[in-house]
């Protein structure tokens, strides 16, 4: 089992290799970051974005939470999107769901046995999952024959679709698409595309869900 001491020793080895093999990048990263992608993913330890995409440090701007949710009442999510679009000038937002998601499974269970008001008041996790549970209930109600992994995958798809729609509905994206000058950079920033992906853990593969939205 990985311990904190292991993190330090593994980082020591990695940093020596990274600085030796990519000294120019290491020096550049010490000054700035210029990612073109914002990754909105799940906190699941099996889906580390830089690893599964073979990306270098500085290439992907990231926010992760339980079940890759983008809630319009979440200041953390909104602040990440704001900084990514208006300061960094990212070009792509990717919402990434994944198979075998514990949050999705919990939402499916909650669809048939909703938590009590008392439970919601005492659990930030349950409150966070309310929109996903609503998605799961709709999927269950409209697809009575689905169960198991097929049901879970349908919920993943519908959830990612909802997050894409939530992101597109923000004034952050709408202003970007209208060419409004960024209040953070004082410039008109890159037009952003918003995408929906799913990571298949068993195959270690990213799948495009064909949910891309753009200004055109």
Automatic annotation (TrEMBL):
InterPro entries: Carbonic_anhydrase, Carbonic_anhydrase_sf. Its cofactor is Zn(2+). Zn(2+) binds at residues 42, 44, 98, 101. It catalyses: hydrogencarbonate + H(+) = CO2 + H2O. Binds 1 zinc ion per subunit. Gene3D superfamilies: Carbonic anhydrase. The keyword Metal-binding applies. It is an enzyme of class 4 (lyase). GO terms for biological process: cellular response to carbon dioxide; cellular response to oxidative stress. Belongs to the beta-class carbonic anhydrase family. Its EC number is 4.2.1.1. One of its GO terms (molecular function) is zinc ion binding. The keyword Transmembrane helix does not apply. This is Carbonic anhydrase. Reversible hydration of carbon dioxide. Keywords: Lyase, Metal-binding, Zinc.
């Amino acid at each position: 089992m990985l311990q904190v001491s292991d993190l330090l020793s593994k980082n020591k080895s990695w940093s020596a290799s990274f600085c030796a093999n990519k000294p120019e990048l290491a020096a550049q990263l010490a000054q700035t970051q210029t990612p073109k992608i914002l990754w909105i993913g799940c906190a699941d330890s099996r889906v580390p974005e830089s690893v599964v995409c073979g990306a270098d440090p500085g290439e992907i701007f990231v926010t992760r939470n339980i079940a890759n949710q983008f809630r319009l009442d979440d200041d953390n999510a909104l602040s990440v999107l704001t900084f990514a679009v208006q300061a960094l000038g990212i070009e792509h937002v990717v919402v990434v769901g994944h198979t075998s998601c514990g949050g999705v499974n919990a939402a499916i269970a909650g669809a048939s046995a909703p938590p009590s008001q008392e439970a919601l008041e005492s659990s930030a996790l349950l409150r966070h999952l309310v929109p996903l549970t609503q998605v799961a209930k709709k999927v269950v109600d409209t697809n009575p024959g689905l169960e198991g992994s097929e049901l879970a995958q349908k919920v993943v798809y519908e959830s990612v679709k909802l997050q894409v729609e939530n992101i597109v509905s923000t004034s952050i994206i709408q202003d970007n698409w209208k060419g409004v000058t960024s209040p953070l950079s004082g410039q008109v920033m890159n037009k952003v595309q918003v995408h929906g992906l799913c990571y298949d853990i068993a195959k270690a593969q990213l799948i495009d869900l064909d949910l891309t939205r753009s200004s055109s």
